[in-house]
Design brief:
Elements lengths: L2 H69 L1 H4 L4 E5 L5 E3 L13 E9 L4 E12 L2 E11 L4
Antiparallel strand pairs: 1-2, 1-3, 3-4, 4-5
Length: 148
């Protein structure tokens, strides 16, 4: 065999090896970015879904409080401080944490504050939950008066 041909063949094989390593590296980076992107997207979707559910629980809490106001304004005025609202709409005084949790995940607390100047009750309904090690919450606030 010709020496020039052997040298050219070795250079060609070396180039092919480098091209293959570059191609493998590119594929690994591409696959990794797709996996990371998918993981982040799924996590964001889970958080968004949890926020939607928490907002529904907060709205439901405001409606439960509104029903209390509509039933008996005099008794309603006596509420103060923080109260847990369970899945059945029953209020219990908050001690440390609400139990049982809604869907084994969400805690719903209504905070009652009487405003004697304007003769109205300020109610904040806070729904909190955890995703992994991160805590999330959503809050709705409403003012109730003796409208009857």
């Amino acid at each position: 065999m010709n020496t020039r041909f052997k040298v050219r063949l070795r250079k060609s094989l070396g180039q092919s090896l480098i091209e293959m390593l570059l191609m493998i590296s590119l594929v690994v980076v591409l696959v990794t970015s797709i996996v990371v992107g998918s993981t982040v997207s799924l996590k964001n979707q889970q958080i968004s879904s949890s926020k939607d559910q928490a907002l529904r629980y907060a709205q439901q809490g405001v409606e439960i409080v509104r029903a209390l106001r509509n039933t008996d304004w005099t008794s309603f005025q006596l509420y103060s401080g923080s109260w847990c609202i369970d899945k059945d709409g029953i209020l219990t005084a908050l001690v440390d944490t609400c139990s049982p949790l809604l869907d084994e995940k969400y805690q719903r607390v209504a905070k009652f504050t009487w405003d004697s100047d304007s003769e109205r009750m300020n109610v904040q309904v806070l729904v909190s939950w955890n995703v992994g090690s991160k805590a999330y919450s959503t809050m709705l606030e409403s003012y109730f008066t003796d409208w009857k």
